[in-house]
Amino acid sequence: MAIIEKREVTLEKDLKGVYFKNFILFVVTIIFLEIYIPLSICSFIFLVIGLNFQRRKTEKFAFKKEYYEKDIFSQLNDGYHVFNDIVIEIKGKRTKLGTIIVGNNGVFIIEIKNVKGNIIGSISDNNLIVERNIAGLNYYRNIYNPYKKVQKHADIFNRYLKMNNIRCHVIGLVFFNNDDLIFEKNIVNIDNSKGLIFDNSIELLRKIKLVNLNYTEEEKKEIISAINISKYL
Question: Is the pTM of this model over 0.70?
Answer without folding.
Answer: yes
